[in-house]
Amino acid sequence: MSTTTAPARVRPPREGGVQANRTGTRIFLAVFAVLWIFPLGWAVLNSFRDYKFTSVNGYLSWGGFTLDNYKNAWDRADFGTHLVNSAIITIPAVILTLILSCCIAFVVARFSFRFNLTLLGLFTAANLLPPQALLIPVFKMFSKVEVPEWVSDSGTLLNTYWGLIAVNVAFQTGFCAFVLSNYMKTIPKEIYESAVLDGAGVGRQFLQLTLPLCRPPLAALATLEVTWIYNEFFWATVLLTQGSKFPVTSSLNNLRGEFFIDNNLVAAGSVIVAIPTLVIFFALQKQFVSGLTLGATKG
Amino acid sequence: MAKRYKGINQLSTGDKALVALMIVVPTALVVGLVWIPAIMSVWLSFTNWDGLGSFSDAQFIGTKNYTDVVSIYPPFWPAIQHNLIWLAVMFLFATPVGMLIAVLIDREVRFTRFYQTAFYMPVVLALALVGFIWQLIFSRDEGLLNDLTGSTIDWYGDPRYNLWAALVATSWRHIGYIMLLYLAGLKGVDPSLREAAALDGATEKQTFFKVVFPVLAPINIIVLVVTVIESLRAFDLVWIINKGRNGLELISTLVTANVVGEASRIGFGSALATIMLLISSVFIVIYLRIVMKEDAR
With contacts defined as CB-CB under 8 Å, which chain A residues touch B256? Predict the structure, then answer.
């Protein structure tokens, strides 16, 4: 490595120091990593333990393993319904977010209009605004917008999945448009030039040239957005007034009352809610990491 | 079929309509659901709208909402204080720790993948869920912390401690995020810079502070902005603990409580929302200037 090229007279004293340093680093990292895994590991461990056993022997004991907490948590918290609700919200929201952000990113990257930068800024900034600061107008707008009966039994956008999906899409499009436009700008203009010569219109350029080339960032963004929208808590909590409509993340708040004392049930519930995101994370870690760094560390 | 080539940006009428559509649909959504509400929050903060009638019933009352909020709204100053503590802890504790871990992982050759996964894992969990997971540690009767120390403190309930418990839980997640941002930044640092510094006899510490850290300047600013904005938006964790009361008041929870809570005070809520918008917009402008510098040329 690079140290071998260093002058010999400098090496001996430094080498020893570096060695000790390395061991220190390893111990430090290992201790911290274990510390970091611990809270989740603790939840997993206790989710498999019988409540009666731990209340008698305390949590610092061993034994009392059971699967009942999962069954009870699943039944009492109605996770089946809430996970379906999460899917109803997350899947359309992610698809719409990606479609709309592809459109904006394509226009911004492909054409040099004068308002391009302003447009991109408008989207990127929207993603960074605190959602709570927009709550009052959005809440009141939704409660005033009248929609047909088949969309909502209450007759307004409040308490509908449509409204919630729209808000999520509006917020997330900014981030995706920003990442995608950066990526699309790296596509050489010459490719479009020959397409134009062949008589391909904007639609064909978009669908047959740009989008296939954008598979890597789209995969990364889809991974991130599924996690983010699944994890979204604020809008779902305030815009859905009916507890049974809550996606699983917001329904956590309801569990609080149900599980008021039984920590092992809380643990099982937490693990159930964490599983979808953890599966995505472990399966698609590369996409996950590249998506975040694409967005934040460019430039 | 073959049209005469008029340049790469040639657009037929149909194409023009398509491009217009590609701009108008997403823009309408973002303007309608983000920017118009943002402007309305500011406008409502200067009116006495009761939240029930139509918007046109609102009457302009100047800065009365603001003077009321700072003078006769008891949770306001605690909320400001809590937000500032939150920011300080994220900035002075979580960010340096995240950076330190990133630097150490970056130097390490073995198990980097494992370390990265371990530290990053909490970031994929919902903040609301993080609150739940830490309840197993902070709970008064069954929590691990009290089991180990023998204390009887209600970490989530006692207003003397619950902000700090929430900060520990949120740091667990935030540090992983910061670590990832710095790790990506460090990977981008030209290795020849470090080699040159090593050849000149610089210690690792000197190399980091004098060579690597300055190169990371854009990331430092992005991390600063992300930290400020995330501290301002902090909501989920606190709401899951006790809906932001009794020691956990934050500006974001006050706004929410003023809309969906028992006492609906639109004026107060809007004034608080405007304060949030004002603070965040300063940092959003800084952020945009950095990430778009290249584009502006």
Answer: 132, 135, 234, 238
For residue A76, what are the CA distances in angstroms to A64, A208, A247, B133? 21, 49, 15, 18
Q: Helix, strand, or coil here: A195?
A: helix
A3: tokens are 């140290």
Map out the domains of chain A with their CATH numbers. Answer: 2-68 (no CATH), 70-296 (1.10.3720.10)
CA B217 to chain centre: 20
How far is Cα B156 from Cα B164, in angstroms, rounded to an integer?
Answer: 9
Q: How far apart are CA A182 and CA A299, in angstroms?
A: 10
- Cβ-Cβ contacts under 8 Å, A140 against chain B: 51, 55
Q: Which residues contact A179 (CB under 8 A, 6 or more apart)?
A: A217, A220, A221, A291, A294, A295
SS3 A280: helix
**A242-279, pLDDT tens digit by residue?**
888 999 988 877 666 655 567 888 889 899 999 999 99
Per-residue exposure over B223-238, b if at least 16 CB sit within 10 Å of its own CB, e if not: bebbbbbbbbbbbbbb
User: Do B128 and B210 share a domain, yes or no?
Assistant: yes
* Phi, psi of A235, deg, nearest 5: -65, -40
Predicted pLDDT at B5: 57
**In this prediction, does ipTM exceed 0.95?**
no
Q: How many CA atoms lie within 13 A of A165 on its CB side?
A: 17
The pLDDT-based confidence of A12 (bands split at 50, 70, 90) is very low
Inter-chain residue contact B30 with A133, CB threshold 8 Å: no
CB-closest option in A3, A237, A266 to B132: A266
B124 shares a domain with B35: no
**CATH number of the domain that residue B162 is part of:** 1.10.3720.10
3-state secondary structure (DSSP) of residue A180:
helix
Q: Which two tokens stand for residue A71?
A: 């069954």
Q: Quick one: pLDDT band at residue A22, thresholds 50, 70, 90?
A: confident
**Claim to verify: residue B165 and residue B245 sit in the same structural domain:** yes
Residue A157 contacts by C-beta under 8 Å, 6 or more apart in sequence? A141, A142, A143, A145, A147, A163
Q: Which of B33, B84, B258 is nearest to A131 (CA)?
A: B33
Nearest-by-Cβ selection for A136 from B11, B41, B204: B41
